[in-house]
Structure formats: structure tokens, C-alpha cells
Amino acid sequence: MAVRFGFVRTAAQKLSSHLVIALVIVGLLVFVTLFLYQSLQIQSKQNEYNQTKQELSLLQERNDQLQEHLDFYKGPGYLLYVEKVAREALNMVKPGETVVLATQPDGRPAVAAPKPNASSDSTAPPATATGDQAASAKPKSNWQNWLAFFVGQ
User: Which pairs count as long-range contacts for 78-86, CB under 8 Å and 24+ apart, including other chains?
Assistant: First the structure.
């Protein structure tokens, strides 16, 4: 009988060693699977981080450009330019300012507006200038316009 139990004991030891080997193999497969899954997750998060970092750098560059524009528009040079355009081109004044316009005695403005070029029109008769027309065709300086306004020349 002792021999029989020895055979069972040997069979049990073989079975337990096969079971241990199978468990070790399953454990290794689970470990490798989890390692690969985590590696893919890390790579995915790294790609997402790099993309977000690139978007952030683009947004920072755009923000810098917009800040430069804002600094330019808030600067004194641009404000002076806007004021000049508003006064000259749009005939605007600040509140409390008085506008003085010089006019000729006959109601024409003292500063002559540029006239269209009549020489480009081939159907127009040739212009003949009299003495008064020739004098008024020559542009006057600003002080001459004021003198003409007050003295009546």
C-alpha cells in the first residue's frame, strides 16, 4: 500500500507543478496585456498633451499679435492720427471749440477747392483766362486768404 500512496503523491506533485506553471504563464500574459494597455494609454495622453501644447503656443502667438495691435491703437501716435483725420477729412471739432471759416466777399470759400482738369475733356472749348481769373486760379497762401477775408481784397 505504501507504493500506491507514493504513486498518488508523485501524480499530485506533477499536477501541482503543472498548475503552478499554468498560473505563472497566465500571470505573465495578464501582466504583458496590462503593460501594453498602459503603454497605449500613455502614448495617447502624450499625443493629446503635445497637441494641446501646440494649440497653446498658437494661441499665445495670436494673443501677442493682438496685444501689439492694442498697444498701437492705444498709443499717442494713433490717437493723433485719428484726430487729424476727424478734423481734416470729416470736419469734426471737439466740444467747446469754435470753428472759424474764411470766405470771400461773394460767399465762396477762401481756400479754393481743386477743380477737375478740363483739358481731359476734348469737347470742352479752350479756356481763356482774364486778369481776375488768372489771379484767382493761382493758389494763395493761408495768410493771403486771411488778409483777403478781413480787408476784402
Answer: none
